[in-house]
Amino acid sequence: MKKGIVVALILMSIGFAAVTTSLVINGTINYGYDTKDFDVYFSEAILDGEVKSEELIDTTKKSITFTTKELSKKGDRSILEYQVMNNSKQYDATVAIECKRLDAENQESDEITSKYTEITASPISLTVKAQESRKGTITVELKNVSTEEIDEKFKCSLTVNPGEREKESSTYIADNYCDSVAKPNLGTNDKLIPVTISDDGTVTKVSEDNESWYDYCDKKWANAVILKDGETAPEDNQKIDMDNIEAMFVWIPKYKYRLWNVEVEDPLYNVHSIEIEFDTKDTEDIEGVSCATPMESGNIGNCNNGEYMTHPAFKSFGVDGFWVGKFETGYKEAKKEVEARINNNDSSHIIIKPDVYSWRSNTVKNMFEASQNYKESLQSHMMKNTEWGAVAYLSHSIFGINKELTINNNSAHKTGYAALPTIDQSKILGETGDGEPFNTPWNTFNGFTASTTGNITGVYDMSGGAWEYMASYVQESSEDKTGFSKEELQSLDERFVDVYAKDSTTTSYNKMILGDATGEMGPFTRYEDTDNNWRWHNSWYADGSHFVEASNPWFHRGGVSDYGVIAGQFDFFRYSDTIYNGAGFRISLAPQ
Length: 592
Description:
Layout: E1 7-14, E2 21-29, E3 40-47, E4 63-67, E5 77-86, E6 91-102, E7 108-109, E8 117-122, E9 125-128, E10 132-142, E11 150-164, E12 193-197, E13 203-205, E14 223-227, E15 239-240, E16 245-253, E17 255-258, E18 276-278, E19 290-291, E20 308-310, E21 321-325, E22 330-331, E23 350-351, H1 364-374, E24 381-382, H2 385-395, E25 417-419, E26 439-441, E27 467-474, H3 486-490, E28 498-500, E29 525-528, E30 534-537, E31 554-557, E32 572-575, E33 583-584, E34 587-589
Parallel strand pairs: 1-4, 2-11, 19-20, 27-28, 27-33
Antiparallel strand pairs: 1-11, 3-5, 5-10, 6-7, 6-9, 6-11, 8-10, 12-13, 12-14, 13-15, 14-16, 16-21, 17-18, 17-20, 21-34, 22-23, 24-34, 25-26, 27-31, 29-30, 31-32
């Protein structure tokens, strides 16, 4: 039998001394093919977001060696992110990882979890197509502390099997991850029309049973449209003219994610690929494995770092997924920027598509009511903070773009644009002109960098564009600038709003609702930006981070077109809920 070796060696120490761990990844290639062309190796490795490939991967690119940081308290983790490259031309590769703990004699133990440490590999299996690469992680977590020096060793076997390259096959990420993706719910009345969108923006009607409609493991999210009144749905495989489309939506399937910062100020594991598993069942309290979703501001329930939790965005309506507006909500009749500054709640003006002016200068109450009145049979509503968090987290996983989105710097607040990479993004507030020629539209290679998938199937305008008010506010707020009376706010259906603790302050990030992409983005620091303004920033790309408070009780997300690097899908600010030229909103659908 021919064998090839792919090895990673971890040296880890735990307790109060420097912990050393050793991890060995042995790769074996099954015999049966002419494997002269078959070559799988480590192309990238990052330890705890700091130590880079050149310090970890040996010259043969077949082994990785690293020493963990000091692990001194329960829950401390050290994470190796690695990338496996299949440099073959004729063979795809299936890769499986199994980890074992070694005893004092360096023999494999049947127990992977010791008294002190646990090691996990994610994913445990994946498919690496020819000439493609895939990422995975090895996580070492301290389960219990010790006053004495403890040495732990682990060995992970990486089995690599070649297979004949599938002609015309798509590129996949861990195929088995997508077996549990919830099928998109198109509703019964005001039915959504399933579509595919080509890279040039061409929209085509497909059957909801068409296998090519979506594939989340290929970062291809499901899209659907609502046609303008009077338009008839075409037959399957027929194109739909953009002029006939009123609104475009993207499906966010129900998932659970692995918690990493329930205490807000944990510095161990900041920017990383968020570990997501699609699952239509709600997680329960199982120590060390999962926790029931708290669903409450300032309450982390029985949740601990490393456990999986069903994202709260899917629990409010009891659905297996929700639709989110592919773009910020626009004003249908606006032919120039000023004509989209309208203060009313007439839902007949709603349009959700690229290259339209965002609907702004409106009261929060009008935004809220227009959203609910839009398609009641589909439970349309103004997007909530937790729903924003669900989209942001999915974007920063192996199923999304997995990095920060490019800002929509179109100063006219047109939807679906992305700043050109030649623009100096290090400048916080700068002149971006009227959108020409400093940015590009959604259906271009550069435009894809502003999409949550890195391709045309994702959600746009989550960085820059207009601020987006969320249906999320401080409990018992006395403010009345939204148009709501205090009594009306208190009587709102709890499914349609996220309510935050009344003692919230600008920096009370612990008042988060787990999953809303606020407190979990910590730790937070305050410093002066290049425009001479002092702001709070999170640890994820230094996006702006000001929590809601009594005098500024409403969340808005994403930043605005001239916010440069402090805008992003993890940006959050609070506002006094007054009518604001720079703030709009987004619509979600939760059909039963």
